[in-house]
Amino acid sequence: MKRLAKDQFDFLYAVFSGEKNGLGEETAREALERGWVEADGGGMQMTPLGMQMLEPYRVKRAIVMAAGFGSRLLPATANMPKPMIRVKGVRIIDTLLDAIVQAGIAEIYLVRGYKGECFDELLEKYPMIRFLENPYYEEANNISTVWIARDLIRDAYVCEADLVVANKALIRTYEYETNYLGAWMDEVDDWGLWPGEDGYVCRLSPVGGPNGYRMFGISFWTEEDGAVLSDCLDIQFRQKKRWQEYWDEVSMIDHLEKFQIGIRHCTFQDLVEIDTYEELQALEHDDSFTLVLTNSTTQQ
Question: Rounded to 10 degrees, what is the CA torsion of 229, 109, 61, 140?
Fold first, then answer.
């Protein structure tokens, strides 16, 4: 049973992950008194009881969306799926998969479609991957990819596979609530999220707007919200609603009243979304952008 308040969870996760920010004195004092953490030199470390308190929030699985064609990346996608393209010698999808593995997430499902056999080579490095086939990828947008994995969207990340993840800590071992990654912009130039007074998403706009968060395609869904989303997706997909649109619109436009979706802050240094061949080439020649990948698939 989940028992922590949000500030308690944030504090314990900060200690668990070695973060130095967000360690409020009052919450720290409470955590010490309850035996969740203990003093360790000038800092703190988790106790077995603290780890026990975090355990109900463990992320169980990650769903990787990799079925699309990526027409705007032609000619790079003529012979391979977009996530398998290399940037600075590294496959785009490896940057995400390494982050998932580093977080110790036990189950990884990859939904494939266009040239799906190309993903088989991932098994050499990531033998834990389980493939799901999307037979609708040529006739429907990415709602079909998430619909294929609808029964798995519980305590799970749903991740677009074309993101170059520079900060692997974006994928976390534990999550408190349903959320999307977002980077603040004075003028959002793409898909944007706007929070209400309670901090939860109150508006999604595919065309951007002032003073909002640029949305990135990494979201987490709790057990409860994942079950609701699964039902919503199933009904709309079977009725062929939004077949040519995006799965995010099901939760944040059609059924937003059913969810409380937080915004987890990130920066444009944490990850890069590649949409066009020109963006791919620009990143390839950007000397300021470097990638560090894990060499091991050992899980926590």
Answer: -20
Q: Which pLDDT score, from 0 to 100, does residue 270 have?
A: 93
The answer to whether 19 touches 189, Cβ cutoff 8 Å, is no
Q: Give the chain as a 3 state SS string.
A: CCCCCHHHHHHHHHHHHCCCCCCCHHHHHHHHHHCCEEEECCEEEECHHHHHHHHHHECCEEEEEECCCCHHHCCCCCCCCHHHCEECCEEHHHHHHHHHHHCCCCEEEEEECCCHHHHHHHHHCCCCEEEEECCCCCCCCCHHHHHHCHHHCCCEEEEECCEEECCHHHCCCECCCCEEEEEEEEEECCCEEEECCCCCEEEEECCCEEEEEEEEEEEEECHHHHHHHHHHHHHHHHCCCCCCCCCHHHHHHHCHHHCCCEEEECCCCCEEECCCHHHHHHHHCCCCCCCCCCCCCCCC
Indicate the pTM of the whole model: 0.92
Token duo for residue 104: 């110790």
Structure confidence by residue, pLDDT tens digits, 218-275: 999 999 999 999 999 999 999 888 888 889 999 999 999 999 999 999 999 999 888 7
